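COMPLEX REQUEST
Ligand: magnesium ion
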Amino acid sequence: MSLRQSIIDHPERRYIMFGGKGGLGKTTFSAATAYWLASRGHRVLVFSVDPQASLSDIFERDIFGQGAVEITHNLWAQEVDADRHIRVYQDEIRRKILDMYGFDSVPEEIEQYIQAASAEPAMEESAIFDAVVDIVVSGKFDYYIYDLVPLGHALYYLSMAKVYDEWINKITKLREEMREYEEMVSRLKREKDTQEDQILSELQYIRGRINASSQILTDKEKTAFYFVVIPEKMIILDTQKAAGLFSAFNVPIAGYIVNRVVPEELLGQNIPAYLRHRIEMQKNYMGEIRQTFGDQVSAYVPELERDVTGMPMIERLAEIMYGDGNGRTGRPR
Ligand SMILES: Nc1ncnc2c1ncn2[C@@H]1O[C@H](COP(=O)(O)OP(=O)(O)OP(=O)(O)O)[C@@H](O)[C@H]1O
Ligand SMILES: [Mg+2]
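STATUS: Structure written out below.
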């Protein structure tokens, strides 16, 4: 089924993701898809947690850390600043500690703990995850296009619920340590009973959010995950491996998009041997792709004469990927 058809036929798939190894075209396809859906009258948010700010690059506009920014009618883009989210986290934890225990300042040991916890990758991942949860549960858009970071991370993200669990375990441990402070404080205040276990109920709330969101993002009904591949040996192999892992995580794959296909039609022209060889080599790998991914290939996208940045190029690519018929490219062969 063509890419266009697979999206039109499944309006319930409101979360669209392009995954794949670094530099294959995930951001490019995310932007083009967002553009196309917006042009069809849907409200679309394309977002990323990539610190490289590649959406800023492709839209030629600095949107990093600025929330959802309207690019054109119906098309919004957002780049999450994960570091800022971590700082917000830290401040929240500090404020809670101050509020709950009536300290004037956060005790040194706890401050150290907060600093150390923030340096952990799990903390960064969970800050990112939290930001993504906020974005998708807000429900303000018809479509959410998640411009993923390269594959390794995407896989990590899929096991995020687990990462989050680990983080919660850490907080629970902190909670136990805090209990000692709590007892000390109440002794000082001569209070017998300590307050309700606020932190614990907070943790339960977080856990509820994780469950809700990981359901959204791995929901077979609502999520469309496309793999981006290019006609190269290593990429085909790696993609196969990744696809295996995805099925282990129960993430359904909506299709594969082959990018950077040098048009075979060129062979009929007077072209240098160099290019001729490249096209011949590519032909082998195209065969392999057809054999490996078969009718799951949703689109073939040609190698363009320049990189895809700025609205005119995005529009052109959207036409190639989603143009409805007269186009010779962009459709499965
Ligand atoms: N079909 C194409 N023709 C020409 N240039 C392309 C094509 N597809 C992608 N590019 C260019 O290739 C570069 C990498 O693309 P892109 O940033 O979309 O990859 P990515 O998968 O998002 O990378 P990363 O893994 O770093 O996030 C960009 O400069 C983009 O403009
Ligand atoms: Mg990218």
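REMARKS: The beta strands are 15-19, 44-48, 69-72, 75-79, 143-147, 223-229, 255-261, 297-302. Confidence is low (pLDDT under 50) at residues 326-333.
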